[in-house]
Automatic annotation (TrEMBL):
Pfam families: DUF489. Transmembrane segments: none annotated. This is High frequency lysogenization protein HflD homolog. Belongs to the HflD family. The keyword Glycoprotein does not apply. It comes from Vreelandella lionensis. It is found in: Cytoplasm; Cell membrane. It is a peripheral membrane protein. Gene3D superfamilies: HflD-like. Keywords: Cell membrane, Cytoplasm, Membrane.
Length: 212
C-alpha cells in the first residue's frame, strides 16, 4: 500500500495557525463524541494520537499526516467558530479550555520538561506496540493526568456517566485532551494568539478557504 501523498500546507502564518487550531478543536470534538457515544471517527482519532506521539516530525505537514482532511472534524468546527455554521457550545468550551491550559503549561518550564520526558517514553512504547495500542493510549492518558490535570483549571467532561466509567474510556478521553494540548502548543508556535480569534477573523476565514 503506497503512502498518502503529502499536501504542502500554504506557507502563510494564518493557514498554519488554522491547521493547528483545527487540531485543538478536533480533539475537543472527539472528547465530546467519546463522552456521549463511546465511539470516534477512526481517521480523526489516529491523526490526533499520531501527532501526539511523534515528538520530532520531519515537517509541519507530517504532524497531521500530510493531508488537511485528516483534520476535517476540526476544520468544520473552526468554520462554525467564525460564524459560517452552528457551533457546538460544549466543543467550543473544551477547545478554549485547552488553549487556556496550554498557556499555563508553556510558562511552567519544569512541567514542560516532565511532559517531554513522559512523551519520549510513550514514543518508545508506540514503536514497540503501535501508535494506537491501548498501552500507548493508557500512557498518554496517564501523562495528561500527571501533568495538565494538576493545574487548578481543569476541563470537566460532560457525557454519559456509564460510558465515562467503562474500561479505557477515561484514558481515551485524556489522550484526546493531551492531543489538544499538543496542537495548542503548535498553534502558539505558529503565532496563534487568543486575541487574533477576535480581531483577525477575516484572515482565519480566508485561511479556511484553502481547505474547503
Amino acid at each position: 500500500m503506497s503512502a498518502t501523498p503529502i499536501h504542502r500546507a500554504p506557507d502563510t502564518p494564518a493557514a498554519r495557525q488554522a491547521l493547528a487550531l483545527a487540531g485543538v478543536f478536533q480533539a475537543a470534538s472527539l472528547v465530546d463524541e467519546l463522552a456521549r457515544t463511546g465511539q470516534v471517527d477512526a481517521r480523526a482519532w489516529e491523526t490526533l494520537i499520531n501527532a501526539t506521539v511523534d515528538t520530532n516530525p520531519e515537517s509541519f505537514e507530517a504532524i497531521y499526516g500530510g493531508h488537511p482532511n485528516n483534520l476535517r472534524r476540526g476544520l468544520d468546527t473552526l468554520e462554525a467558530l467564525v460564524g459560517r455554521k452552528q457551533a457546538n457550545p460544549v466543543v467550543l468550551r473544551y477547545g478554549f479550555s485547552l488553549l487556556l491550559l496550554m498557556n499555563k503549561l508553556r510558562t511552567d518550564r519544569q512541567m514542560m520538561d516532565v511532559l517531554g520526558q513522559k512523551l519520549t517514553h510513550v514514543q518508545g512504547q508506540a514503536e514497540h506496540f503501535g501508535t494506537t495500542h491501548e498501552n500507548v493510549i493508557a500512557s498518554l492518558g496517564e501523562t495528561y493526568q500527571e501533568t495538565i490535570s494538576t493545574f487548578k483549571t481543569r476541563i470537566v467532561v460532560q457525557g454519559d456517566p456509564s460510558l465515562l466509567q467503562t474500561r479505557m474510556m477515561p484514558e481515551r478521553v485524556r489522550a484526546c485532551l493531551m492531543a489538544g494540548i499538543r496542537f495548542a502548543l503548535l498553534w502558539h508556535q505558529q503565532g496563534g494568539r487568543r486575541w487574533k480569534l477576535v480581531f483577525q477573523r477575516k484572515a482565519l476565514r480566508r485561511a479556511l478557504d484553502n481547505f474547503s
